[in-house]
Design a protein that fits this description.
This protein is of the alpha+beta class. The chain has five helices and four strands, in the order βαβαααβαβ. A four-stranded antiparallel beta sheet has the order 2-3-1-4, covered by helices on one side. The radius of gyration is 25 Å and the shape is elongated.
Length: about 180
């Protein structure tokens, strides 16, 4: 297995980074990432990113909490502990609403946190791009784009040339070894 590598380039401003992301997407690259100290409006469209599946994960977690809470209360009041309280029927569903709602919110929150961690592959304690001294600027005033060697179109020389043609500065190849 070959070592994974990244071609990293710095750009001068968010507008240029947006233009370069669009150019990478138009050329056919799929395994590339942009880095900036703040969100850039329109970057998702420029990179042709699909909508996040996190909403569906949260919906499933909430549904599981809703059905689990309602089902548990139904089972407890109708099967496990048949208690007549103030003449109410065993299946008194209006009384189940607060607990059902709270469990729906709780399981949605758990699904959100753990789903997000799974989708963005956290925890990851080290990324190869941290080896670049130039990349430290990304937290304050740097705008970077990296192309991953896992991309079908990846060729180190052509990717480096492509980023230099788009006015990328400090273009470097970083090995993950």
């Amino acid at each position: 297995m070959t070592a994974r590598e990244y071609v990293l380039a710095e750009f001068s401003c968010p507008k240029q980074l947006l233009h370069v992301a669009k150019a990478c997407s138009d050329k056919g690259y799929k395994q590339f990432e942009t880095y900036s100290p703040f969100p850039i409006h329109g970057m998702d469209d420029a990179m042709n990113l699909k909508p996040s599946p996190l909403g569906w994960i949260v919906l499933c977690g909430g549904t599981f909490g809703l059905l689990g809470g309602f089902g548990l209360q139904t089972w407890v009041s109708t099967v496990a502990y048949k208690l007549v309280i103030s003449g109410k029927p065993f299946f008194s569903y209006p009384a189940f609403v607060p607990v059902t709602f709270e469990l729906m919110v709780l399981f949605s929150a758990f699904a959100t946190v753990f789903g997000m961690f799974a989708l963005i592959k956290l925890p990851r304690y080290h990324h190869p791009l941290f080896k670049s001294k130039n990349f430290r600027k990304v937290t304050s005033h740097g705008f970077f784009l990296s192309i991953d060697s896992n991309d079908e179109l990846y060729d180190e020389e052509s990717a480096t040339t492509f980023l230099k043609e788009l006015n990328g500065t400090a273009v470097e190849v970083i090995q993950d070894a």
